[in-house]
Amino acid sequence: xxxxxxxxxxxxxxxxxxxxxxxxxxxxxxxxxxxxxxxxxxxxxxxxxxxxxxxxxxxxxxxxxxxxxxxxxxxxxxxxxxxxxxxxxxxxxxxxxxxxxxxxxxxxxxxxxxxxxxxxxxxxxxxxxxxxxxxxxxxxxxxxxxxxxxxxxxxxxxxxxxxxxxxxxxxxxxxxxxxxxxxxxxxxxxxxxxxxxxxxxxxxxxxxxxxxxxxxxxxxxxxxxxxxxxx
Length: 231
Fold this sequence. Notes:
The protein is an alpha/beta fold. Helices cover 33% and strands 26% of the residues. The protein has a single domain (2-228), classed as Rossmann fold, CATH 3.40.50.300. α6 (165-181) links the parallel β7 and β8 (185-189). α3 runs parallel beside α5 (135-147). The model has no long low-confidence stretch (mean pLDDT 93).
């Protein structure tokens, strides 16, 4: 599905990612962990083309997308839910979703029915503006907006940040359903270790822009956490 090989990414003259490599298979969820500033978001932005890699290779379904424009990656089936969610505050829930469909070249005035199956909490607030939603409602809307683009690869940047435990459980259930019911792989950036251990089978840890540990989730031991994920 996705192969990232030895990429280097910069912000201006600042070298952020150093020869980073990872792979995701069909229908697989891989978690990327790391302290703040480790380069996790930059990795997602490199995959989406928002902040393209300067060197290395990114392949998606066997095609080289390293230098492809961001909107063309979306059309190929890569959807990104950023940490800030980027809900359009002056548009309603429905309008936010319809705009996302337009980004995939789909012109419609209706929200697909499956959105309410996955996100029933959005149905009674479908006419409410995005800017007045709670954090949990915004996160569900952000994932719904990505999901209507029918992605083959869904990138989630800290989807549980700032959410209360009951909402975290809802997000966890939704991600599991996406993996089980839709033809979609997931690359998850997350800080909650209990969430990661429950939802994924493989992990990679970034530290100052380098992969310093990776493996099956059973290898995410307390010793590994203490070495790489504690300040």
